[in-house]
Each structure stands twice: as C-alpha cells, then as structure tokens.
Specification:
alpha+beta; Beta-Lactamase; Heat Shock Protein 90; 3 domains; five-stranded mixed beta sheet; 9 helices; 42% helix
C-alpha cells in the first residue's frame, strides 16, 4: 500500500469518527473529504444527496450545485444490489461493502465500482444518514498502466529521436548526389529515376523533422481552451468541407490556463483530424470541455484541471493497434505515418497532462486532461 492510500485511510477513519460523535455538522466539517481520491456522497433518509466531494463530481459527471438536494436516482441509476444496500442501511442500520457494482451515469456511461455504504447516527444534524463511497475498480490499474506506458513511450521516443538524427545527415548526402547525377544524365527517362530518389529523400527528411519537432522548447502564455478549440474547428471545416459536422459542447465558465498555444492547437488538431480521416470526412465530431476538481495527473495532485474530449461516431480504433496507438509510426489508416497521436501525446505531456482513449464502433472518445495550476 502506498503513502497516498494510507493517508486516505487515515482521513476517512477520522472523518467517519467525527460524523458519529458530532451533533453540529456544517459543510465546513466535510472539507477534508475533498482530499480523497474516491467519491464520497452523504445521503439523507429520503436518499437525497446532502453532500458530494470533488471526486464524486468528477466520477458522476455532475456539479455539487446540481446534485445536492436531489435524489440519488436523479443523477445515476444504481444496480439492484447497491439499491438494496442503501435501503438496508436506512432501514436496518446495516453497512455494506461490494465489489464490481454497476452504476449508470446520466450521460449513459456505465461505471464498474467498488462501493461502501456506512450508516451514520440518526441524530447527526442536517439529517444525513448514509455515507456512500464509490471507487472505480480500474483506478489503480489505470494508474499503473499509465506509469508503465509513459516509461515505455519515453524510451521509444528517445530511440526514434536518436535514429532520426542519424538518418537526417545521410539523407542529405543521398539527395545531393541524386541532384548531381541528374545533371550528368542526358536521357529524360533516366532523370525520372533521380527525381524519385530526390522526392523520396524529401519525404523522409520531412518525416524525420516531424519526429524531432515535439522536442522543441515550450513557449508558455495564458491561453483560453475554447479559443484553441475554435481554431481547430475552423481548420477542420476548411479541410473537410461538406458533410463533416463539428459540434461544440463547452463549459464556458472554465478558467484560462498556462500553455503553449501552438502545441495545444496541434495536439487537439491531430486527434480531431485522425477522427475525421477515419470517417472519410463524413460523420460527426463533438468537442466537449468540463472542469475537474482534485484530480491526479501523471502522479501529481491538482486542485483544478480542464477535461477536453474529442468524440466521434466513426468506425472505432482497430483492436490490433489499440494498445499501441500512441507509439511512433503506428497507424491504422492506409497512407498514415503514425505520428499524429505521438505528437499529440508529447505536447499534452509537456503541459503535465494526460491523454487516453476509449473506443468502440460508433463511439470513440479521446480524453485530454490539463492542469490549470501546476502541482
């Protein structure tokens, strides 16, 4: 068990103890719950939500303002097992701990969670009766997988960067020799072969340059994520005129962040362009933004982050490359060079953020999370 898990356990035990001995509970008493990585909800006798912490808002995709005072059933659909546990907690004062419990959010996403229901003393002020703790079963697996992938990808990028440097110089020599040879040839048909050499050398030079480009220094400034998305949207509409629909779903209350404007435009554009190309320019892309509170990104904790999703209704990512889609030179499209997602991931990581993907036919979601304040 790591230090963070131990810290959470201590906080949780202390708070639970305080709930059951305090007669005058206020919202300030629950401030420590925002430190927990697991979602925590306090529920009254009518199964209405009286409190939800930051992790709960993130998990259930709902703000505390929209959730407090509403029945739990209004923001998610619980499985029969969990609903029975909530009923028993209220009626019989029974606690419950269950694994791999299914909960459906308002947006239709199915969550598989570990759940704990803890009855609270009925004489606690404000009428709170149950403490419901929800934790995604993939949380720890995802963190471990993310750490492993980052290490593998850093090693892979370093290897390719070194290879690119080694390849660039000989390519210049090959191109120059082909140009000299072209001047010595009298037959136009023979010059066609030197043109092939020159054009292929130029193509490889461009490929090498793109492999090295993500390693340039950042130029940080204050940026607005929606200005970046509007730029991406205009570029997509110009590149794919006609039947490609690009919709907005913005949270306009999001704050500005510090970042490299050009890198962020390129990162989002690479993801969105991949989606458009996968659909042949005929489909629907949604650009969605939301805020996240108390979130861990790349093993650092941040008070506030921006979540950006690029959603398309295309054919989905082939299973054969799903685990390797961010690796250099891996492409699922004929004619693709396999650098778009690699560069996008590099730029997002430069901003201390993360990028991941969930895909099935008809629904592919790339999720980018960027901290507003550095941890």
């Amino acid at each position: 068990m790591n230090v963070w898990s131990l810290t959470q356990g201590v906080i949780r035990r202390r708070l639970a103890s305080r709930y059951n001995r305090t007669m005058n509970v206020t919202h300030a008493n629950f401030a420590g719950l925002d430190l927990l990585a697991s979602a925590v909800l306090l529920i009254d006798a009518e199964q209405q939500i009286r409190y939800i912490n930051a992790a709960g808002e993130n998990l259930l995709a709902v703000s505390s303002r929209a959730a407090i005072g509403k029945p739990l059933a209004a923001i998610c659909t619980c499985s029969t097992t969990l609903q029975s546990a909530l009923d028993n907690g209220l009626n019989n004062n029974w606690g419950y701990t269950g694994q791999n419990i299914e909960v459906c959010r308002q947006d239709g996403e199915i969550l598989n969670l570990n759940c704990t229901v803890t009855p609270l003393r009925p004489d606690i002020a404000a009428g709170m009766r149950l403490l419901l703790e929800l934790q995604p079963i993939e949380h720890h697996l995802a963190a471990t997988r993310e750490e492993r992938l980052i290490e593998q990808q850093q090693a892979s990028r370093e290897l390719i960067r070194n290879l690119a440097h080694e390849i660039k110089n000989p390519l210049g020599g090959i191109r120059g020799a082909a140009q000299l040879l072209e001047h010595e040839l009298a037959s136009p048909s023979q010059k066609e072969y030197t043109q092939v050499i020159i054009k292929e050398a130029d193509r490889l030079q461009d490929l090498m340059q793109r492999l090295l480009t993500p390693h340039r220094a950042m130029l940080p400034a204050t940026v607005n994520i929606h200005e970046i998305l509007e730029r991406v949207r205009s570029l997509l509409r110009a590149e794919f005129p006609g039947s490609l629909a690009v919709h907005r779903d913005y949270d306009t209350s999001l704050p500005e962040l510090i970042g490299d404007r050009e890198q962020l435009i390129q990162a989002v554009l690479n993801v969105a362009r991949n989606a458009a190309q996968a659909m042949g320019g005929d489909g629907e892309i949604i650009l969605r933004t939301r805020s996240l509170r108390q979130v861990t990104l790349a093993k650092k904790r941040y008070r506030l982050a921006i979540e950006l999703k690029v959603i398309d209704n295309g054919p989905g990512i082939p299973d054969a490359i799903r685990e390797r889609m961010f690796y250099p030179l891996v492409s699922g499209r004929d004619g693709g060079n396999g650098l778009g997602l690699t560069i996008a991931q590099n730029f997002i990581q430069h901003h201390h953020g993360t990028i991941d993907c969930a895909s099935r036919p008809g629904n592919t979601v790339f999720t980018m999370r960027l901290p507003v304040e550095h941890g």
